[in-house]
Amino acid sequence: QDVCAVLVQACQLVPLDQEHLVSKVCQLIHHLLNRYQVMVDEQNLNFLLSYCISALRQCSSWTHVEILQALAALVYNNGPKCQKYLPDLLGKAGLLLQFSDPGQPDVELRRAAVRSMANLCLSVPGQPYLDESYRTVCFQTFLSVLQSSKTADVDDITFCMLLQSALKGVQSLLNGGKMKLMQTDQIGALLAVLKKCMFHGLPGLSIEVPTALYPAPLPQYDKRSPVKQEQSEPATSKQTGSRRKKCKGKQKKGELGEEGREDPGHAGNESVLGADMLKLHLGDVQSSPGPRAPDVCAGKDPLSSHATGWKRISSSESEYSDAEGGIQSKVRSYQANVRQGALACFLSTIKSIEKRVLYGYWSAFVPDAPGIGSPQSVSLMTIALKDPSPKTRACALQVLSAFLEGSKQFLSVAEDANDHKRAFTPFSVTIASSIRELHRCLLLALVAESSSQTLTQIIKCLANLVSNAPYSRLKPGLLTRVWNQIKPYISHKDVNVRVSSLTLLGAIVSVQAPLPEVQLLLQQPSSSGLNSSGSATPGRFNSCEQWRKALPWAGENPVDNAAGCGPAEPCWLLHLCVSIIVLPREDSCSDSDAAFPSLCSIYEPCPLRLEALQVLALLVKGYFPMAQSYFLELGEVACRCMEEMDPSIQLHGAKLLEELGTGVLQQHKPESPTAPEQRVPVSVVVTFWTMMLNGPLPGTLQNSPHATLQTSACDALSSILPEAFSLLQGDQQILCVTLLLGLNHSENPLVKAAAARALGVYILFPCLRQDVMFVADTANAILNSLHDKSPNVRAKAAWSLGNLTDTLIINMETMGQSFQEELSDLLLLKLLRSATEASKDRDKVKSNAVRALGNVLHFLQPCHVANPRFREAIEESLQALIATVGSEATMKVRWNACYALGNVFKNPALPLGEAPWATQAFSALSSVVKSCKNFKVRIKSAMALSIPSKRECYGSTEQFCQIWSALVVALQRSEDTEDFLEFKYSSSLRTQICRALLHLLCLARSTDLPLIGGTLRDHGEAIKPYVLQYLRFSGEENEAGTLTDLGERERRLQGAIDHLSGIERELQGKVRVRVSLYLEDVLTNHTNATELTEA
């Protein structure tokens, strides 16, 4: 406040006609606001801004630079408070527009104006941003600055500072204004100037970029003469070589300090690729070395905590030797800042453009293999390989990473597995070539890089590429090269390099797993390729004896003996990860370990162990047959981790445990491709879970203060193999159930949701589902969670409720009336009411609530239906189902509602024929089967309509014939859809409708025939091809998931003919259209066509 008061008083004392004093006052404003980080209150800001604006209007031009610098300092982070001055500054004849005009001869003045404009564009969290019109004006101004060329009378440093101010302004608009770039010309113009600035002053490179880039699938070559490039190459290589040598001696504490800033708590795939995107985000940081630089250090800028700053290259960090000093060194430093600023701005631009639009510019920024005789096009990799500044190289790799993130769908078109010679190059081959070139360039950069910080970025970029590339469609070999070249970096002296190397290995084992190429790599012996570089791998990685001795189960290796699978020694990656996790470190702390002070312990640094745990989990998930040979040892690793004090290590130990459990579950599924003798034996799985339940798992579930850890432990406990659970000791079974029922009452929604889901898994276990007490306890626990305030808890509870009611049906079918009588009527009523209530919840809850309703209504006995207490609840639940079928809910909800009504129709205790709700249900299903956009919903409605087993269930003749007519119309419309993706279901839809039509014909009464005959007279010829197609094609699955053969379909048709012929004989020709004759004609056509085909 004192500073503001001094400044206001100074302005009051200095009249505008005293220009020398005005200049000095403006310098004072500029200096004090920067020096003392002053937040100017609104009243004083208004006075000072008015003074500056009046001074700009009245004073001579020689004072304008100082006045604009004061203005820039005043508006910095005060944009929302300056609204009433915007017309004066940014209006049609606004002062800042005049001074920043491309025709402005004074470059210093233009730079000061652009800088003020950029500061106005800074956003303040929680405050309104610039209006659209002002944003557009600013954007165009910045763009014109960036498009301008340096004239002879402008010195390099001033021009660099002008470009930096404009880049900072664009970045502020994109970040703060959440500006979305939509127009192609706007995007193209911005990308063109960013490409130009990315290479500004890069030694040995001179390129011309067009004023706009246009989206195109083909490469856009830069206008460079090959001769010029050849001349510049020797200089470039010389520069690069000398730069490498210098850097080797310059990995100073400052640099390692920067690298060591990775968050130890998030060393996962997301962290290393996602959180690290912020690390070099280069936000709205001050871009010029003059005023307001202290703001960067003081963290005034919301993004500066994630930034390394465009301009803070001190002499200790500089990439140039003292001998090169002087003005040339300074110019290079400023040019490097422009390149970094352009790359930072590009990063923000990527976030402001839709990915599908961005990938239209792929060839302008991503390298492609050069054609014969053509120069290599310049790209982000040019900077990553040739820029002398490690910081700029890291920025380029950061941008490339952002480009690659989420590119899986775009890259999925790539294909070069087949060597077909074509007259043209397909787009798929162009993209494949680009992917190959990216691998080549990044591996080149990996070998050449000496800065640990940039090395980390290269490896992360490789991990992003690996995660998104479609290796199954590419020639094998790419991953082998990456695998072999990354091995030496596992033992790099910098811990961040080691962590990112593990991340890359994790990406390799998780991409499109299992890949044959990766399977071969995993089978390589432990020692291969490990000591191929100067960075020797610690000796402990070369022997598996130590870690196996460290684990009690390793001596006998029962899985190996029992399952008869497993190599003589573990795969290199599994061996490496286990060693990092369980063995004490052999070497002293590396320089960068200082960033993890709690970790100069006996073990490897925490981020490294966390990454190793995640890679191990990915390896188990993608290549379980390879990991299963060490099943018990890996269980021991998970146990060890869960016994540690560090909650993040415990958490990833629990995740590893879950993956091991899930791997066994997948292997033992009935449809599993793994031969029974190759599976982990159930006896070993029992040993495994006995070890877990006697170890730290129960304690973690009961006592952990960390909700995320408890949640993971819950998920792990739910991954137990049902056959193994039944063989556990009784007290251990009770322990599991008690823990889950207890956690279902947790106050933390994450834990409660996980417990509710786990109970939904346990309720399907054969040894538990027949225990009425367990079913009742689980039902009450699930109902409790179904009323929770958390939507996630309710969604998981609804899923479990669906499973619980599935169990009721299984028990009804296997145990008969005894189970139905033992289950409390009161509990059944609670289930019905709660499921009805849940069916009105959000869609994620609703989809399983309607599934549960169908099951409960199917389960009800005549005594329940007759009970007055149940009557109202039954009516409400039926109305809820009918309403859901015809609602605008998601397709999964409607699909389940149709399925549920089909289940209701299976219950003979419900009065289907005469009840008013039955008419509504048939009407809703008939409407959906004709007109729903989603074919899967139509299929389920047709299925439901074919379930009632007696004619009286369908009600009156009028209702029966309405259902018949609806199915005939549905068959004719079975190819009508606006969504191309639905066509793949049209065959299944026709099969289900034909099945329903034949079912109705088999049940028809004599009174139904006139209407059926009339429909066939009008539409018989239209639907005949579909019926013939139904008879002809086999291989369709029925409701139970089993295949129906052609003979069965013909028998159904013959059955309908026999039934109708009998009725028609009784009527003695009173029916005008003989329905049986129509069907006989269809059958004859089918038989003739079959005979012709066979002949």
UniProtKB/TrEMBL annotation:
Compositional bias per record (Basic and acidic residues), positions renumbered to this chain: 221-231, 252-265
Pfam families: DUF4042, HEAT_2
Region annotated Disordered, chain positions: 220-271
Name of the protein this chain belongs to: HEAT repeat-containing protein 6
Bias (Basic residues) ranges: 241-251
Domain DUF4042: 338-518
InterPro entries attached to this UniProt entry: ARM-like, ARM-type_fold, DUF4042, HEAT6
